[in-house]
Amino acid sequence: MKDCIFCKIIAGEIPSAMVYQDDDVVAFNDLHPVARVHVLIVPRHHSGDILELADSDQGRDDMAAVLKAAAQVARITGLAPTGFRLINNCGHDGGQTIRHTHFHLIGGRHFGEKLL
Which uninterrupted H or E stretch holds 20? Predict the structure, then answer.
């Protein structure tokens, strides 16, 4: 998608601080981190949100790739032993600001049980 900022990052048109990448996903540091570690995991295949991803033929493969990448990013950033959160915001009310399915892997501090 030509106007999507994440598609431009994936294509190398916009620089980013890559943490991990493979044939299916890219993972890079968030520009506005909410914790010591805040990495965005983005499928290379464009879908607007997780609902659109779920309805696509590519969705299952993309989700498997995201989970694999999340484990790798947790190991790379040192979060695997202590834990992290993997978050997806879907739609306006869910807080999604960029219309390309992506996941926030955050950690490096104790979050507790509450989500909000």
Answer: strand 18-21
